[in-house]
Amino acid sequence: MPPPRITFACELSSERLGDVFGDRSITAGIRALHGRVTLALADFTPERARVVRQLNDQGVPVVAIPLLSFDEGYYFTADNYRRAAERYEEWKAWTNEQRLVWDGVGLDIEPDVHIFLRIAENTWGLLSMLLPSPPAG
To answer: Is residue 103 part of a domain?
Structure first.
């Protein structure tokens, strides 16, 4: 049985992503651990594509996690499956346009990010979300 593989998940913005992975000691450490990087992709920018190519060139495998914009709920859900399918197609087009190489693709299926924000703003509001609605009539 092969040894487990360490995967480093990253949800940084395009701007910060370049700063982190521009440090060759970080990518050298990931390679030394035979690890890979999973990138959450809420945007498909040239800067983000440049980081993917840089990681590939340095021998670090990269897994893509296409996401929606924050305004659209960020995560793929059962309620936004049509938009999620469109977003996946957008990711494939960007991948081809930018000539990106992926070690894999993952799907992050969670509740809409706005639900988490509502809970953070008012933890007691979680109760109303969990309790059944009163019967109509």
So the answer is: yes
